[in-house]
Amino acid sequence: MTSTSFSRPKASDILFVWEGKDKGGKKVRGEMRALSESMVKLSLRRQSIIATTVKKKSFASGRKISDRDITLFTRQLATMMKAGVPLLQSFDIVAKGHANPAVSKLIVDIRSDVETGTSLSHAFRKFPLHFDALFCNLVSAGEQAGILEDLLTRLAVYKEKTQAIKGKIKSALFYPISILAVAMIVTAVIMIWVVPAFKDVFKSFGADLPAPTLFVMALSDFFVASWYIVFPMLFGAIAFFLQSWKRSVKVQRFMDRLLLRLPIFGEVIKKATIARWTRTLATMFAAGVPLVESLDSVGGASGNTVYGDATRKIQNEVSTGVSLTVAMQNTDIFPNMVTQMVSIGEESGSLDAMLGKVADFYEAEVDEAVESLSSLMEPLIMAILGVLIGGLVVAMYLPIFKLGAVI
After folding, report:
1. What is the pLDDT of residues 264-288, one digit of tens each?
2. CA–CA distance, 35 with 50 (Å, rounded to integer)
3. Are 87 and 45 in contact (CB under 8 A)?
C-alpha cells in the first residue's frame, strides 16, 4: 500500500505563468505557485503537459493603495462570502477583477498566507499600512465566533460610512483652499508682470503718486527682485509644516485642538469626530469585542488626538469598574446628548444600538453642516477675492483717475 502526500504551497512560493501543449498537442496555459521554474516544469510533466514557456508573473506597480481601495476590497470579499463562495476563490475573483494592480498583488499575497493555513486575521496583520488594529481585531472576532461573513459585512459598512464622513470634510475644506490658492497665483502674476508695466507708465506722469499705489509698487519690486527666494521658502515652509503635522505628536495635538476651536469649521470637525468615535465603538462592541479592548481601537479611529487622549482616560477608568457614561462625562468633550444615549444603552443592555443611533445622528448633522458651509463660504470667499484682487487693481488705477480729474 502506497500513500501519496501533497505539499501545501508556501507563502514564499513565486507565482509563475506558463504555456505548453497537452497530450493531444492542444495549446494550454495557466498559473502555478512554485519555488522555481524547474519545479513548475516538473509538475507540468507529471500532468502530461510539455511546457514551452515559464516565467514569473509580473505585477504592474499601479497607483498607491488608498483607503477607498481597502473599503472596496472589504465590501467585495464580504459579498462573495455571503453568497457562499469559498474564501480562497473569493480572493481569486476579487484580485483578478480589481482595477489597481497594487491591490491585486496585495490580495494575492494575503491569499498565499491563508492558503498555507494562516488565519485571515494574521494574514491581514502582516500589512499594517493597509489593515489597522480595528480591522484585524474584528476579523479575528469573526473567525473565533464562526461569523466571519457577518463581521466582514459589518466592517464594510463601517468603512463605507467612515469614508463618506472623511469625504464630506475634505470637500468642505477643498473649495475655500483651492480658491485661495488661485487667488495667491493671480496676485503673484499681477505683482510680477502687471504692476511693473503700470510703473513704467506712471514714470511719465511727473506727479506724486497716491500712497496705496506706492505701497503696491514697492511690494511688486520686492516680488520681482526676490520671487526665486520667496516662493521656494513659501513652498518649503508649507511642506515642512505638513510633514511636522504628520510626524510630530506635539504638532498634531496643537493642530487638532486648533481645528476643534475654529469658528466655522470647528463644529463640523467635532461632529465628524464624534460620529467616527461612536461608529467605531458600536461596530467593535456589536462584534462581541469586550468594551475595554474595543476602546484600544476607538481612539485612533476617531482621527483626532484630543479624542484619542480622552479615550485612553476612559479606558483606564472603565477597566477599574467605572461606567462608560461616567468616564465619558469626566473627559468633558462629549455633548450631553451623547452621554445620555450611552447611559440609556448601558442601562437597557443595548449599548451598540444606541451608539449606532448617535453615529447616524451626527453623520446627518455633518451632511447638513457641509451643505450650509458651501452656501456660506461662497459670499465670504467672493468678499476676500474682491478685497485682495480689487484692492490691487484700484491701487494701480488711482493715478489714472487723479490724472483724469486734473485734465
Report:
1. 788 888 998 999 899 989 988 888 8
2. 19
3. no
Asked whether 152 and 77 are in contact (CB, 8 A), the reply is: yes
CB atoms within 10 A of CB 173: 16
What does the radius of gyration of the chain's CA atoms come to, in whole angstroms? 31
142: nearest Cα among 133, 134, 151: 151
Instruction: Characterize 28-60 residue by residue with b for buried, 16 or more Cβ atoms within 10 angstroms of its Cβ, and e for exposed.
Output: beeebbbeebebbbeebeeeebebeebeeeeee
- How many residues are present in the chain? 407
List CB contacts of 80: < 8 A, sequence separation 6 or more: 89, 90, 93, 94
Extract the C-alpha cell encoding 91: 480572493
Q: Which of 190, 92, 178 has its CA nearest to residue 388?
A: 190
pTM (2 d.p.): 0.70
Determine the residue type at 4. T
At residue 298, the 3 state secondary structure works out as helix
Q: pLDDT per residue over 95-134, tens digit each?
A: 887 778 888 889 988 988 898 888 999 999 988 889 988 8
- Quickly tell me which residue has 487622549 as its cell: 309
For residue 61, which phi and psi values (nearest 5 degrees)?
-60, -40
Starting at the edge strand found earlier in the chain, the sheet holding 27-34 runs 27-34, 14-21, 50-56
SS3 label, residue 28: strand
